[in-house]
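Notebook entry, structure prediction.
Reason for the run: the old model in the group folder had no record of what sequence produced it. Starting over properly, with the input documented here first.
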Amino acid sequence: MPNNEDIKAQIEHLDQVKDALLKYRNQFIEERYNDWPYHFTPTKDAILKIVYDKKSCVINEITKSLSLSPGAITLVLNQLEEEALIVRIRKPNNRRSVWVELTDKGRIVVEAINETRLSFWGNLLGNLSEEEQNEYFRLMKKMQEGLQKI
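New structure, fully documented this time:
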């Protein structure tokens, strides 16, 4: 069984890997979208992905999914709406709820981001054998399940 110093060293190494991964991901994305007229943030990216996956969702779903305050979500939605990537809609059968949907431009942007995401992970996972990739996914899934129990 590892002692406390070994565990501390492993956790420190894990933090370094996480930081390097995020830095590489951000550089990868910036290189591809540097000339776009949008300023992407992780929150904007996450919101666009949620709306793309659901096709249409209420703002409350986004708030719960990202564990952010309604005010923070509204601020980002305002920016996305100004960039013409989303629209807010009040549906006739439920006028109290505000729904969010992607515009055609928003869909094109998200699909381009998804292609970049696939390319990023393909580059990263390309360094691993098929067996190592399967082990990586198994461990990530196990960690995700553990987080859901917290």
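Summary: Residues 1-35 form one domain.
The old model has been moved to the deprecated folder.
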